[in-house]
Structures are given as C-alpha cells and as structure tokens.
Amino acid sequence: MVDAVAPRTLGRMSRTPRSAVIVGAGIVGLSTAWFLRERGVTVTVVDRSAPAAGASWGNAGWLSPGKAVPLGEPSVLRTSVTSLFDADAALRIPPRADPGLWAFLVRFALRCTRRQWTRGVRALNALNGPSVETFDELADGGVDGPMRTTSVVAGFGDAQAGEAMCDELAGLSGLGGGLDFERITRERARELAPQIGERTKYLLEFPRQRIIEPSDYIDALAKAVTERGGVIRGGFTVHNLRHQHGKVFVDGYGVEPVAADAVVIATGAWLSSLARAFGVRTRVQAGRGYSFTVST
Predict the structure, then answer these.
(1) Tens digits of per-residue pLDDT, 76-128?
(2) How many CB atoms neighbour CB 253 within 10 A?
(3) Which residues contact 129 (CB under 8 A, 6 or more apart)?
(4) Cβ-based burial of 282 (10 A; exposed 0-12, middle 13-18, buried ≥19)
(5) Is the CATH code 3.50.50.60 the one for domain 1-60+214-296?
(6) Which of 140, 145, 152, 143 is nearest to 64 (CA)?
(7) Domain boundary assignment for the chain
(8) CA 232/CA 225 separation, integer angstroms
(9) Which of 41, 84, 161, 176 is most buried, with most CB under 10 Å away?
(10) Which among 167, 163, 171, 56 is positioned nearest to 121, based on CA atoms?
C-alpha cells in the first residue's frame, strides 16, 4: 500500500486511510476493496480492462493453500533446463534477448535451494492458514459466487511422477502445510472424474477441497463491492502514481486522475512497473498459463 504522507516509500501506514484506490480488478484487488469497504474506507478500483480479465479468470478455481508453495524447489532447475528447448513443456520460458528476464532467471536459480524453499514454505504457511476461511467471511457478507466442496483427482502418466507428488506432500506436511490425500483405483477416480483415460497410471484423491467458478465468482465479488458503495472503473490504464497535496494521485492514459489517501497495487505480473518507484526491487515475472475444457 502506498501511503500519501510518505512520498516514494512503502511501509506501515502512518494513519488510517479514509479513501483508497486499488489498481487491478482481479480477485486480489476486488477482495481488498470488499474488506476496505467493510471497514468504512471509500474505494475506487481501476483496471485497464474489466474485472477478472486476466489470471483471475484463466484458472481452475481450486482453493488449495496447502499446495501454494514457492516455485523455486531444487528440482525445478533440472526441469527448467529441459523445458527451455521443449515447445510442448508445461513449464517453459521462451529464450529471448531480454536482459531483465535473464537477470530474473539468474536470481531465481540462485534461490533454488532446499534452505530457501523451506523458508518460503514456512513464510507462506502464515498466509495460507486463514485463506480458505476468508472465503467463508465473504460468503457470510453476501458474496454469492458459486463455491462447492468436493474431491480433486490428480492423475499421472507414470508411477514415478505420482510418487514424487506424494513425497512433496509428505515434506510439506512436515513443515506444517500440505494436503490430505490417498492413492485410489481407476474405478474410484472415474466416479469422481469420468474423463480419466487408460494412459493414467497413478491416481491420487484430495478430499474436501473447495472449488469456485472463477469468472462467476469474480462477477459476484465485483457486484458485492459496488453494492457496498465501491466504484469500479474499467478502461483505466495506469501509468504513474504520484504524491501531491497529501494525496496519492493515480494517473491513467486519457482519463482524469483519481486521488485518495492510499493506493493498493494489485496488478499481478505488472506489479514491478508501478511499484519500483516506491522501493520494490523484486521483479515479478509472468509464467506460462494453459488450460483446457472437457465435457462433464
């Protein structure tokens, strides 16, 4: 959060803001707006497109804090080197002449150690713990987005990959995270997911998992924000944040600036372009997104 009374710095707010602009209308930005409205803060959400136009739409909707772990696991280095030359790999970083990208990759590689990964898991556990309950709070407050509790099935083409997942989950459990799971038969898997094919050799069931429909849920969340008096403005491409007269001004291309006591930057992969001026030096790098839809 950018504080209006602390130019070019980030940190603890020196006073409680009465108004805030949230840059980004994904699930992070809209959730922030909802909770700020619950606390009486005037909020305006701005986005270059519309709610859930990016990663908040293009995902499977699995609320899986137990699987929210740092990407920099030591084995990722081996996978990544192979993936660089495989156009069909799930994890692929297209090699190109981008100094910023290669600087990011070097820093990432240096942190792919067991010690750093363990530190990251423990830090995330503090955030992951209450995250699912937060969805209950949103539901109790009137966010009527579709959410259900069900089992999730993970299928693997060979036993080695499935056993590696089991080992990872066992390690997470020892660090206070992870998920409940069990190995299941193909018959049981097809009761849960009829699409499971013969090539799937190793199957795991994760019971009692929460699933949302991302686009419908974000629509419901956006509606709840506006019903509580929040304002959502699409077509607002932010290019600058500045302090003036005790306020933070959000400048957009071809539109009048919006001012508030504080600004929340919730732009995901585009965070660095706005946050760098306020002391955030860690680069946020977008990954590859992919999905497919089947009939059920």
Answers:
(1) 776 666 666 566 666 666 666 678 778 888 888 888 898 999 999 999 988 88
(2) 11
(3) 65
(4) exposed
(5) yes
(6) 152
(7) 1-60+214-296, 75-112
(8) 8
(9) 41
(10) 171
